[in-house]
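Page header: ASSEMBLY MODEL / two components / 817 residues total.
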Amino acid sequence: MQTVDKCLKCNDCIVVCPVRRANPSYPGPKTAGPELERWRLVGGGYRQAVELCTNCKLCETQCPHGVEITDGICEARAQLSKPFVRGIRDKMLGQVDLLGQVSTRIAPVVNTLLGIPLLRKVMERTAGISAENPLPTFAQGSLMQRLKNRKGLQSDKKVLFFPGCALKYNTPELGLKIIELMESLGYQVLVPELKCCGAPLIVNGQMEQAKDNAVHNMRILKPYLEQGIPIIGSEPTCTLTLKKEYAGLLQAPDAGLLLNKVFDLSQWLVQNGSSQESTPAADKKTVAYFVPCHVRGQGMGLPTARLLKMLGLEVVVLESQCCGLSGTYGYKKEKNDISRRLGQDLANELAGQSYDWLVTECFSCAARLKQLAGKEVYHPVEIMNKLHLDALLTEPVSKKNGKVKTVQQAS
Amino acid sequence: MFDVMIVGGGMAGLMAAAAAAGENRQVLLVSKGPGTLYLSTGSIDLLGYCQQQEVENPWQTIESLAGTNHPYGMVSLPDIQEAVAALTGILNRDQEYYLAGTGNTWLPTAIGSRRPGYLIPRVQMAGDLARKEPIMLIGWPWFRDFFPHLAAERLRTNLANLGSPLEVESYQLDWQPGLSSSGLTAYDVANLLAQSHHWQALVDELKKVVKPGWRLGLPAVLGTTLEQASRMHRQLEHELGVPVFEIPILPPSLPGIRLYNALHRHLQRLGVEIISGSYARHLECREGHLSLTVEAPGGDLTFQGKGVILATGGIFSGGISRLLEDYFQEPITKTRLAAPAVPVNSQQQLAQAGLKNLWLAGQMMAGYDPYQEKSGLGVAAVTGLRAARLASRSLAEGGVGCANRR
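Prediction written out in full:
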């Protein structure tokens, strides 16, 4: 963590830390990050407190001196010794990829079991997996399986789609919609078999395996990157991990190739879609947009808000920061209090807003929003489909690309 | 393509963005974060000292600066009045959260000295040292960011030395939020006080020490928004029956946070495109317009615009960097400087040859010392708004293109 000594202890970071807001006895980013990192670097050990960090990265967007606050927290977290059961639980929660691979094969069984309240209570008691937050349901058959026999668009313009575990295992239909949208823009969408980006491993203290995943993924991505093919991801945590952690925290070889090549889906759509704003529909719908922390962490503004405006929608950007689920964080029993309090702030804001549709692009935030608002939550691409307005961003494919033919999806 | 791209999220940048968006311009604001506004007292100082003399009425003294190379010297008095009115309008949109006297108001600091301010948060106003009611300063023994005994003793001494003695007492209140509270900041205390049982416990303790005819000074911990602070302040005055005022303390400084958030929210309402958390790195003229490169995690973002306003602050904020022992530079345009301040002409453009349609605002400008003068937020607001007006006028006159001037 080379930036540790740039910390001036100005306390700007404390003000955006969701954990500190919910629990003032958490030492906060300044202390858990640079201060304890200095202590750790001289062999002073680490503190259990770092485990409370959600890795939302809001502190880093706030820091006026570019201190990579969470790097030190993640490193320290990998060295924590945990009680036996909690250690096993965290190992398991880090394996989002493996859990998905298994569960999509026996989805009805897994979904039924995880839907039984009594079993959730037992899981909380025995394994420390919170019974308060809804666990995701798995799809029958993963996105990768569904893509095997799909005829995709062949084109000279190529993009590589990084679906991430959520689209692969939980909402593959949405994954297909995103691929169709990119194809409608005239792009051939490549979806090679990749491992989990590593983010759940990092926050669950499995730094070595996260590094292995990064090395593996970079080996596969390298030839595409060398051809100049951009990587598009729809899950903010995955894109942030590729953009920032591969070259930084995880030190993956060749990660420098990712520079300027990884795009958040909305960011890419706004850049590549038509810039002309649509005329507002007669009954202009209002969307409430919740900004995932890892969108803020990418320091690129709010491309989804911009995209929704381009679609002619009235956009209310919700002010609450951090929904309190934070990936696997909200599934840990000992974090129930913090998670609940953060959710309450968001629920209060939602209760005071009027809107037609609730939108976010992050899978985990969407689950939380649905729980708090009791309403359906949409991905921006689902909104585009809803409006049948994806045509707005599209020119006829034939104009852009003479030879339109369908071939087997590259993988 | 943006009409105006603004770099810097402090007072100058926020005011420039508000003014340009208010004229229906397409505005981009790029900032690393709230920076020094989060450290601010929340008061907007126009001019507190001039040539080491206390300024009673800033308007009169500012008039005497006309024609000098002080930033106030190159703007007109109506420019300053317009900026103050615009800022007041934004802040007092819902309620009168900010007040101004005819001249400067002198307020107590956390270490018992005096500070001047012009546009003052209403919740600080009862601290006015021109008022005659004796002052009771309140703290908590576990709170490390405010020491009422120190503040009271020094305030008593300072006022006596000035020949206007005032009775000042201090009291360490027996109020505990019940946590291991040694590391709590003002921000944490504000969050705790938002819970009704903590608030009621504090009010009950305050009732025990309050004396009729006195006024009560608290460290600034009343709420994280202007609305919340105002509501809690009114409630305190109502329940205690005496005037109450906040004293800004160490960061995170709530009066500064409230000020920043109010301005930021205003920009969101105006539809300003805000890139926050990233660094603007490079500006150049490309194909007849200005191209701004922003370094974000994972790569560069590039934006095109017709005009640019730089409001990146002084050497402490990274608006100016030191190259060698005796050389400085403005890092975005790579302008070489002999001193850590950028010389500008009367149109707030680089004094040396530079890009057309580039204006500067705020603390990076040469010709003044915001720390000695206590003029920081005032100069920032005034030059920020004026830069936006100059940019807007230039665009209206068809002044697109960005080739070098001279």
